[in-house]
Amino acid sequence: MIGFDKVFEKQCGEYLEYLYRLAEVQYNDCPDIDALVQDTLTALIIKVSKGEEIEYPKGFLSAVLKNKYNAWLREKYKAELVEYYDGTNSETYNEIEEKENAERKNAEYESVRREIGRLIRIYRDVTVRHYVHGQTVDRISKELNIPRGTVLSRLSAARDQIKEGVKNMEKYSQISYEPKTASIGIWGNGGLSGEPFSLMRSDIEANILNLAYENPVSMRGIADTMGMPSAYIEPIIEFLIRGELMGKTAGGLVYTRCFVQRYEDSFGCIPAQEKLADKYAVQVWETVWKHLEPLTLRDEFAAMSDKQKATMILFVINQMLNEVLRKSRPDSEHTPKQPPDRPNAGRWLATVTVYDHNQKRDNPYDGSGPVYVGYSSKNDGKFDCQMFDCQSLFGDAHWAYNQFKYRCTLQSILRFYASLLPCDVKTDNELIYELIPEFEKLCILKRDEFGKIRLDIPALTFNEVTKHWNPVCEIIKKELFDLLSDDLKKLWSKTKNRVPRHVDESDYFIHAGAMSAYVKAQLLAIVNKKLLPYPVVVGKTPLIYIAYRKKEM
């Protein structure tokens, strides 16, 4: 492993400053100047470490930097090979690239890149210490353990870069003044502090994840594109790295670890899914109803209102179809048995959906969930109640909760709902009673003829669910799979995403979004054909269902 002694560090510092000056003047249209400089200096260090003598180091660095820049241009414009040769280096770019590609595979190369990354941080530290904190050159030299001359050289280079930066404001991307927004969804369970949702604190995180998705990029490149100082961007990126939405290469480049999709690409071919839903509406309904009809005669279901009954049936079909859809994916063999472990007791795979500036979320099939939340009063793993909350075109649910005048956790909302049932659960937030009119508007609560608040969503006891509903649902799933899987697989296969290999479980996302409209389209087709024996008002029938432990009398 290569280490930097003081003499070597001083030389590398000088070469680093030379490369930055050269890159800023001649190649400032490249968004990844840090990467160009790091790769160029790495080429020199590897040669020196092997005992090769380079008579004109700066000439060598200039040639390699030019070739690295040309490689970036070829990638950008898909142009033909460009070679550069100025007499200071006897190898063409192709030969250099061949040797470097081999070197990238060993630990020595990665060690070099880590050391260069450290030098870049020190480069900025010198400027901040002197111009912001007023530290003397001698003090900086002592505290950073670098020569006095190096401090002076870096301060001089920094002044040049600041001037050049002011002249080149136009390199900022459109997102610096029209930032994108994003939403995040997961498969799995979030962390104890709400990760990964809590990691997305603003539009800044959304744009960082989008910029670092296709290829690893430098922190400086992200900062330049967003028009923000690196000192503000870097802590945010480090926060995302610790939360495992992002990662970092040994050379200091950063990349997005979650799947990123555009909003308009997140639904697949909607007409094709609607056509399939219309084709199978009657058969799907008949398959479901022949098994569920006997359950509708049982006391708990029979005691429900027609709206609650309709919601329960739709929710069951929703869950069964989601399972069938997942199992019919052509890449189902790549589906992990469970999401990977994450920090803070989380277990998830995340999908970030990106929206253009001021883009409206107006697709009728846009939705979320069902979000699951449970509550156990004794924290012994035995739940007192559970909620499945699905945001959809059938009615607003958890998205609407964020619009209330008081912010309540989903568990607080579940406990409030359960407090209206015959179980040993009480609300943990008295302020939630002030939100009753809001829940009424959402058609989740209603008042009976005596003015008493009642749930307007279905609820079943754990005993009823496990003994009677769950076994029947397993039968329904199998029959629906046999009915639908062939046609579903054909539609799945028509959409293929190009997913970068650095994305966690990248194969899992190859067909992501291809069938996002189908399940709700199928439910809608069944409703529009009036197949349900209960009335359904689309937009006022939120798909929320509660299971609970009945209070012992």
Secondary-structure topology with pairs:
Blueprint: H1 6-26, H2 33-49, H3 57-77, H4 93-103, H5 107-132, H6 137-144, H7 148-167, E1 181-189, H8 203-211, H9 219-226, H10 230-242, E2 246-248, E3 254-256, E4 259-262, H11 270-292, H12 299-302, H13 306-327, E5 341-342, E6 346-355, E7 368-375, E8 385-391, H14 398-401, H15 410-418, H16 436-441, E9 445-447, E10 453-455, E11 459-461, H17 462-493, H18 518-528, E12 543-548
Parallel strand pairs: 4-6, 11-12
Antiparallel strand pairs: 1-6, 2-3, 5-6, 7-8, 8-12, 9-10
Helix pairs in contact: 1-2, 1-3, 1-5, 1-7, 2-3, 2-5, 5-7, 6-7, 9-10, 11-17, 11-18, 13-17
As an assembly, this protein is: single chain
Distance between the termini: 72 Å
- Give the mean pLDDT: 84
Structural class: alpha+beta
Helical content (DSSP H or I, runs of 4+) = 40-55%
- Basic shape: elongated
C-alpha Rg (nearest Å): 30 Å
Estimate nothing, just give the exact number of structural domains.
2
Number of helices: 18
Measured by DSSP, the beta-strand proportion falls in 5-15%
In N-to-C order, the SSE pattern is HHHHHHHEHHHEEEHHHEEEEHHHEEEHHE
How many distinct beta strands? 12
In the predicted model, the low-confidence regions spanning at least 5 consecutive residues are 78-100, 114-118, 166-171
Outline the biggest β-sheet.
4 strands, mixed
